[in-house]
Amino acid sequence: MFALRRLPPKASLLSTGLLFEFSFAAMLSRTPWRALERTRSGRWTSAPPTSKTKKICNLLTNINTTDIMANREIEYLVRHRVNRQESTVKFLVEWTDDTPRSWEAEEYLQTIDPKALYSYWEERGGRDHVTLLVEFHVYKVKSKGWKRGEWAYNCQWVGCPPDQNTWEPEDKILSNAPAAVADWEAREAARQARVEARNAGKK
């Protein structure tokens, strides 16, 4: 994720344990076993791969961690904590199954249960009011359009519902959130392929 300043709407994964963290880090690396070599401080190291980490890597890359994590259900959000240095929020989550409580990234919770996340903030007077954060992270690019004489992306923000989306200049988002743009382009390509397939079937 990349931080961006977001104007108020009227004015204008990530971790659930090593499996999920590895999956996210591996996507960013041409040598995913390096993602598995993790220091105690939590940063991914570029240490030379060992036979053990390569073996584990081969096993983990065949697991669809997104599906595994998406099946978890939230009982309720206990409390939150704010990392002001990174402008991020984590939540202590009570799960519906026997899984112990765990601290989870806001972006992850927005993916698996956005209603629970939005309700949590709404009940407390709103995310901006509670966290006092002034930097926001792009959660998802929703569309692209011509706005005020330039190309712009319609962005949804981490922790914020769709009705708080804002249009941001193309160069700004490309520079600060290239992964979000790439994800949108992939979704658009898939959508276009489905449209073309349907049209071809009608001929």
Automatic annotation (TrEMBL):
Coiled coil: none
Domain of life: Eukaryota
SMART domains reported for this sequence: CHROMO
Entries under InterPro entries matching the protein: Chromo-like_dom_sf, Chromo/chromo_shadow_dom, Chromo_domain
Residue ranges occupied by any Chromo domain in the UniProt entry: 72-124, 132-196
Alphabetical GO biological process terms: chromatin remodeling
CDD domains given in the database record: CD_CSD
Subunit structure: Component of the NuA4 histone acetyltransferase complex.
Protein's UniProt name: Chromo domain-containing protein
